[in-house]
Amino acid sequence: MSLKSNLHNLKERYKGKKMAPAFNAIHTFLYAPNETTHSGSHVRVVDDLKRTMNTVIMALVPVLLFGIFNAGYQHNAAVDAANGVIRQASIFGNFLTWENFIMGAWTVLPLVIVSYAVGLAVEFLFAVIKGHEVEEGYLVTGMLVPLIVPIDTPLWMLAVAVVFGVVIGKEVFGGTGMNILNPALTIRAFLFFAYPTWMSGDKVWVHQAVDLAGGPDAISGETILGYLAQGKGAEMSYSVADMFFGFIPGSVGETSTILILLGGLFLIFSKIASWRIMVSAVAGALVMGLIFNGVVDAGWITETSKFYGLMSFAFWQHLIVGGLAFGIVYMATDPVTGAQTNRGKWVYGFFIGFISVLIRVFNPAYPEGVFLAILLMNVFAPTIDHYVVRGNINKRLKRAKNATILPRDVEGKAQELKAETV
Amino acid sequence: MALLSKKDANLILDPLADNNPITIQVLGICSALAITAELKASIVMAFSVLFVMGMGNVVISLMRDIIPSKIRIIVQLVVVAALVIMVDQVLKAFAYELSKTLSVFVGLIITNCIIMGRFEAFALANGPWRSFLDGIGNAAGYGLILVIIGFFRELLGSGTLLGFKVLGDPIEKTGLYSIGYENNGFMLLSPMALIVVGLIIWVQRSRNKALIEEN
């Protein structure tokens, strides 16, 4: 007997019992259930919610792998830098090495495991208590969470944050599909406000930098935005190519813009994510970046200003540093929390990019704001949709009002009758 | 013989749980979020409100037949203001540090909707003894929630209770801190206080299904 029929039998046996949702979840995760339609006039498609989620995870795998290599690479680069050795990144020379992979996997995989174990435990618990099926919502969230936190985030903090994010961000609203905030970003925001020392500074982005701090082997790695916020842009040794390919310190999965771009294209072509949101968010970020560059060019702020470093940063380079690209591709396009109408998506995406760069420049304590911008726009998404729908109704109403109906009686005068408004 | 008749006892007991001013009537949230970062401040606030409400309800109840209804709000405000100023002065005289922590929020007891609400809803229509019990009961219900919120916020946010380092010393890394535990800074921010209130409401309603509204 195959695993599939075994699971099916288990499901039958536990039908109506409290634990049933837990078994059903495993069954439907692995196989198409036996109860689906096989005949008749139904549209049969395979892209259900689970397939959607799995596609996003597939788009995330390259980013995760890169994050693993980069974790090891950044550690070794920081050690080199502390010893005064100048290091040039080369993909096959010192990046894709077993040493980097093992060190990275040893630190990144525990984050992934904790994220999934805790998050799914909460999901299963709520499904059993509330007596509904386990929802697929956590599959993507669980993969996003380890990618948007600093590499050395303590596992217990991650666990606490995941519980908070899943319960307060999702389950209290009624579970997957009902949440108004993106759960992964709720988790990130919780970590940011609860444990700020672990989320910012020049120690958290490089593996072991916190442990070694203060000792003779101390290493550090500041993000590019961190350098700029402190006005130390000139000390930075990263080239634009480093930023674009991702050989820079940062949260685990956010650094490689090119892989994120490929993931984004994959999501667009598989029609999972909305290209409207991505395009308009990029436009929004560019517009805000141009405004800041314009302010600098006009000479309205001087080099002594504490915003000078980030404001004078070339507008298009905002897209390839920090978490902006990752946020736009994988988080802003969340179909549940984003705007639903096509015109609304343009507005929603534009403001995400616009506000991200705004917060990035003006936040005194932490030079990044993508997660705050997306959470803010999550809150406004229903309002945007409301006005888009309202606008459409008004437009059609107007059309109906102005419409004329010619009388059927051709003998009589061609009297124009106003149509009754509905 | 019981000290209080069943009806009178309910005046005190109802607001503690099933008719709690904060979790059921959702009044007085503002101060519950603002001053509960420390347990001590919560307790002092709870007792201040207890005094103001107990006394205020008695005074209003005694005067209820001579207050013209057109100006009753002003009369009520004068009574609350007088009592609040008394509390404020006592705090400034005997607990200056604490009164600085509570700052404007003692003065803002005047605007606490629970107090005016009980004056309007109860003291204007009942005798002094029953009004007194009602005031004490509602203030206790308010204070209870304040203390619960204050307990969790101070314990998880600062690792202390009433200023005592119950979880160890975060700087010298003793107690829980020696194994890597860290204080949760989010707990000290007001949004988290609101979430704690929400969690209390959640727990209360799932224990007593009768409180869940139909919709």
Automatic annotation (TrEMBL), chain B:
Pfam families per the UniProt record, alphabetical: Rnf-Nqr
Its job: NQR complex catalyzes the reduction of ubiquinone-1 to ubiquinol by two successive reactions, coupled with the transport of Na(+) ions from the cytoplasm to the periplasm. NqrA to NqrE are probably involved in the second step, the conversion of ubisemiquinone to ubiquinol.
Name the major location.
Answer: membrane
Q: Which reaction does it catalyse?
A: a ubiquinone + n Na(+)(in) + NADH + H(+) = a ubiquinol + n Na(+)(out) + NAD(+)
| Protein name in UniProt | Na(+)-translocating NADH-quinone reductase subunit D
Protein keywords: Cell inner membrane, Cell membrane, Ion transport, Membrane, NAD, Sodium, Sodium transport, Translocase, Transmembrane, Transmembrane helix, Transport, Ubiquinone
**Family statement:** Belongs to the NqrDE/RnfAE family.
Q: What topology does the record note for this protein and the membrane?
A: Multi-pass membrane protein
Regions that span the bilayer? 41-62, 74-95, 101-119, 131-152, 185-203
User: What is the source species?
Assistant: Arenibacter arenosicollis
Q: What class of enzyme is it?
A: translocase
The UniProt subunit note reads as follows: Composed of six subunits; NqrA, NqrB, NqrC, NqrD, NqrE and NqrF.
What are the subcellular locations of this protein? Answer: Cell membrane; Endomembrane system
Listed EC numbers: 7.2.1.1
- Which NCBIfam families does its entry note? nqrD, PRK09292.1
Matching InterPro entries, A to Z? NqrD, NqrDE/RnfAE
Domain of life where this protein originates: Bacteria
